[in-house]
Each structure stands twice: as structure tokens, then as C-alpha cells.
Amino acid sequence: MKKIIIVLLALAVSFSAYATGQMEDDGVYRVGITIQSLENSYWAGVFGEVEDLMKAKGWNYTILSCKDNSATQIQQIENFITNDVDLIMVHPSDPNALEDYLAAAREQGIKVMCWDDKMTNTDVNWVLDNTKLGYTIGTAAAEFINEHYTTSSQAKIAVMNYPQTPILLERETGILNALKELSPGKFEVVAQQPALDAATALSNMESIFQAHPDVTVVCSIGAGGDIGANEAFMSRTGGKIPANVGIFSADATQQQLESIVNGEASRASVGFEGSNKKTAEAVVALYEKLLMGESFPEQNIFRNLMIIDAETAPTFLADFE
């Protein structure tokens, strides 16, 4: 995994990653990025590529994880403002808690971008329609359920969720709505457990198997839940995944695509731009447009969605190499 700069909690640290001069003095852009977590494989993969791209451009940058703690994230943003960065990108733990601090940044002339939430005090928000994303995950799962299950032989489903984050609750809602509409009477949701990272998902999936050994389908709001649940199924079956077992998720990381191609429990994942590199290229292009003063016709820029399954995964996987 590429090196990521991670700063935790006590953010009275030296911002040595920043150049000592201002942008107008030395021509070097200074970027401050704070995201929920770098333990999640999706974020770690994408921001490894983002770091490479910014380094190649000669920018000075700091990438911070707030460990999904809004107080920590506020402190990170305040440090960015104090150090007079040119751009702040935030992936919010709690969007409402950050609005005033981002407003203060913009008052100081700092460009502000949000990844994932439709915030008010930003120059641009790079967002997903998370209910639609969840519905797309649920659609893939429903098609699988309709193929392998009936009203007299229902699929037992576990959902890997994260309801404390509003957009991820929207994803879960979309998943459940699709299942109800597209596979009525053919499934029962027997467990719903929070899991952003693979380790948590693996532990939770093992607990689910103890209470519900007949679970065969998992729907996950992201990569962590998919990867952890897949590991649990692989261990439980000795790597011999039955045809009626399937995991459906979002993010389409390299590890997820490899599992799909290898015929493991992961069956399909909803992707966005494609590989980590393509996502990184897209977001760094947005950074550059903001830094150069370009305006956008809409504050909210929506990302595309695509279901990647066994048929299409090899093509997307090749782009990770």
C-alpha cells in the first residue's frame, strides 16, 4: 500500500509538509485533506494515488484521517486555516458540525471542496446519489436472489451498514428498498451490523454466523463490509463457495474485483470512475480547477454508477495494474 500521511488526534503537530512561502510567493499550491478513515481499503487505495499525483505536480499537501471523529476533524480544519492552505478538501464525519469552520476558511480566501456530502459552505461538492447507489447494490442482489431463491425457500440476508453516517444510511435504505421491490417474499434480513473496515466486518460476520448459520447473502454499503464478509465465507466454506452465496456492495476496489474474478463470495460491486487511479485523477483535476479559480455551473457534481460483476470485472481489474 502506498505511503499515506496520517495524523491522529493531537494536531498540534508541525505542518512540515507545507512550504514556508505563500502560493503567490513560490508558486506552489498547498492542499489540506481530511477524511473519515484511511483504514477503509477504498480510501487508502484512492488517496495513495492522490498523493502520487500531487507529489508529481510539486504541490505541498497533508492528508489526515479524523478516525470518524468530528471534533478531531474540526481541529484539522482549523490547523489548515491557520497554515493558510490554498485548498481544503473534506470527507465529513459530521457535515453539520463543519459548516461554520468551512465558512471561515472561505472567508479567508481558501477554496473548499467536499467529497460525499451536499454541504453549503463549499465551492463544490463531489457527490453520489447515495439512495440510488444503494438501490443499485440492491438491484444486483435482487437479481441474484431471484435466480437462486423462491418464496418457499428464502434467502437469509445480512446487511453491513453504518447508519451513524447519514449518506451511508441512505445507501442502506436504497438497498432495502430495491430488495423489497424486486424480490418480494424471497428474502429475510436477519442481521444488520455496522462495518466500515474489513476487520470489523470479519468479526461481525463471524458473530452473525453463530446466530444465523444459514445466512447466504450479504449486502454491504462499502468495500470494508464486502472484503470482511468474503473472508468469513471463504473460511467457513474452505474456499468452496456455493452457487447460492453472494456478496453485493459498493466501491469496486482491486481486492473486491479480484474476489469477483476468482469466483469467491463477492459477486458484484458498484463502481464509479473505475480504478483507484482514475478516481484519483478525477478528484485531483477538480482540485486543480478550483485552485486555478475555475467556477462550476452547479455546486453539486454527481459521480456515475456502474455495476461491475464477473463479466466486466476483468476489464476494470486490468486498469489497476
What does this structure look like?
- The model is unreliable at 1-22 (pLDDT under 50).
- This protein has a six-stranded parallel sheet with strand order 2-1-3-4-5-11, sandwiched between helices. Strands 7-6-8-9-10-12 form a six-stranded mixed sheet, with helices on both faces.
- The chain contains eleven helices and twelve strands.
- It is elongated.
- Helix 4 (95-107) links the parallel strand 3 and strand 4.
- It starts with 22 loop residues before the first helix and ends with a helix.
- The chain folds into two domains: 23-126 and 276-302, Response regulator (Rossmann fold, 3-Layer(aba) Sandwich); 130-271, 3-Layer(aba) Sandwich (Rossmann fold), CATH 3.40.50.
- By secondary structure, the protein is α/β, with parallel strands linked by helices.
- The protein has helices spanning 23-26, 41-57, 70-82, 95-107, 130-148, 166-182, 198-211, 223-237, 254-261, 276-291, 313-318, and strands at 30-35, 60-65, 87-90, 111-115, 124-127, 155-161, 187-194, 217-220, 246-250, 266-271, 300-302, 306-309.
- Helix 2 (41-57) crosses helix 10.
Write the layout of secondary structure elements.
Blueprint: H1 23-26, E1 30-35, H2 41-57, E2 60-65, H3 70-82, E3 87-90, H4 95-107, E4 111-115, E5 124-127, H5 130-148, E6 155-161, H6 166-182, E7 187-194, H7 198-211, E8 217-220, H8 223-237, E9 246-250, H9 254-261, E10 266-271, H10 276-291, E11 300-302, E12 306-309, H11 313-318
Parallel strand pairs: 1-2, 1-3, 3-4, 4-5, 5-11, 6-7, 6-8, 8-9, 9-10
Antiparallel strand pairs: 10-12
Helix pairs in contact: 2-10, 3-4, 5-6, 7-8
